Structures are given as C-alpha cells and as structure tokens.
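[Meeting: bench + compute handoff]

Bench side (C.D.) handed over the final construct sequence. Compute side (W.E.) agreed to return the predicted structure before the next meeting so the bench team could plan truncations. Sequence as handed over:
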Amino acid sequence: MTVLYVVEPVVITDVSHNIVDDVVVGMRRSRMKDAEKATNSVEELAKAAGVPAEKKIVEGYPAEVILEISTGMDVVVVGSMGRTGLTRFLLGSVAEKVVRNSEVPVMIVQ
C-alpha cells in the first residue's frame, strides 16, 4: 500500500519578495509537518492491520500527482472534503478530477 500526501505549492503574489520568502518557507514547513503527521497515522494503522505501507510526501497539484503515481496500481482511495456549491465550483474537486481521469478504480471516502 502506498500512503500518498500531496502538499500543494504555496503561491503568494503582490507582496515584497523578502516577506513572501519568509511566509512561503513558514507555510511550506507547516504543510510538510501536517503531511508527516497524517501519513504517520495511516502508516501506523496499516502496520497494525498487518498491511505493509510505503509513505510518499510529494509537492505538486494533488489531482495531477495522484493520477501520475496511481498508474499501474490496483485501486486509488481518495478522501473528500465535502465541498459543495460555489466553493467546489471555484476550487474544483481533487476527488472528482481523479475519478474522471483515473485509469484505475477509485474509491472516495468522506
């Protein structure tokens, strides 16, 4: 089993470069900590169930990375944040993009 967490790139515009650099470094560090914490939890659950797990933390755009890494896998299990309405329309849905474009079966969990 592969436990994948995709950390989205931090994008900030229209601010002094010195401030942006500090903010981006801080945000990236925070996101990587969250990724480590989440993947550690899933890895522990898998190991407790006797399922070997490999963690991958990757920076990029989630749907694109998931689709790329999942090639040749048996199934993709992806979480859904449950966004609806305008938020979903504006931000898109990673789960929806994966379902529509995956070459392997996809299970969405909420």
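W.E. noted at the follow-up: The longest helix spans residues 17-48. C.D. will use this when planning the next construct.
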